[in-house]
Amino acid sequence: MDQKTVHVFKVLFGVLGNGTAFFLFLSPTITFKRIMRKKCTEQFSGIPYVMTMLNCLLYAWYGLPFVSANNFLVSTVNGTGAAMELIYVLVFIIFAPKRERAKILGLFTAVLALFSAVALVSLFALHDKTRKLFCGLAATVFAIIMFSSPLSIMSTVVRTKSVEFMPFFLSLFSFLCGTSWFIYGLLGRDPFVAIPNGCGSVLGALQLILYFIYRDNKGKGSGTTKPNGAATTADESITINGAQDGHV
To answer: Coil, helix or strand for 156?
Structure first.
């Protein structure tokens, strides 16, 4: 394919990735409606939201023109994701018990400090290719960590032989999002986008395979009660690039 055709397909998959990622970012709204209604965070964990916010901030920064060229769509989706995750984190902090609030506030502060350090070092100490390499590596490391989050819910599915805690559409959109950004990264020859989203695409595919294996057992999981961690993984393993977030 010539460069013009490659660019058209890259934009197409970038737009598709934006759409599927936006759906993933919206998925925790059900959980937060429940939290606000009960004025309590119950057994939900705020950690996934804080870490997803970090992932989005790093990729939003990475996609800026002075860091990596022709990655505007990476910045738009992750900038949107970071704003939404910030809202989730603030709501969680408001309604969390005192001890949990202190923990999430501490993590939130550490995440902002880490992002600020990456941004400042890349802005003032690095230039051109070294800046892109530094920001890309930082984003990729945290993206891969984020993409590992579905592993806990997948182990629960295998152990209980039930997909009760692994919603089909969340798994489907995680796969579509990871695949879209993986192809976007390949077309743009950008390993910092392609590699983590390739991992996310594979994990999304595995989730779908598990769903079809155990779909008839939904809600019949060997009398197993929902573990504390599973309460969060059903809607929190967002990778847009994430992350799960997936998300890029």
So the answer is: helix
**What share of the chain in percent tops pLDDT 70?**
86
For residue 121, give both structure tokens: 């070092």
Q: Quick: pLDDT tens for 106-151.
A: 999 999 999 999 999 999 999 889 999 999 999 999 888 877 767 7
Please state at what angle helix 128-147 crosses helix 47-62, rounded to 10 degrees: 150
Q: List phi, psi (to 5°) of 246.
A: 45, -80
- Per the CB < 8 A criterion, the answer to whether 49 and 32 are in contact is no
Q: How far is CA 197 from CA 74, 77, 104, 181, 203, in A?
A: 12, 14, 27, 6, 10
Amino acid (one-letter) located at 228: N
Q: How far is Cα 138 from Cα 97, in angstroms, rounded to an integer? A: 32
Q: How far is CA 184 from CA 124, 171, 241, 246, in A?
A: 29, 20, 12, 14
Query: How far is 70 from 73, CA to CA, in rounded Å?
Result: 8
Cα angle 171, 38, 104 (rounded to 5 degrees) comes to 65
Locate all alpha helices (DSSP H) within 98-149, ordered by sequence. Answer: 98-124, 128-147
The amino acid at residue 197 is: N
Beta bridge partners of 240: 246
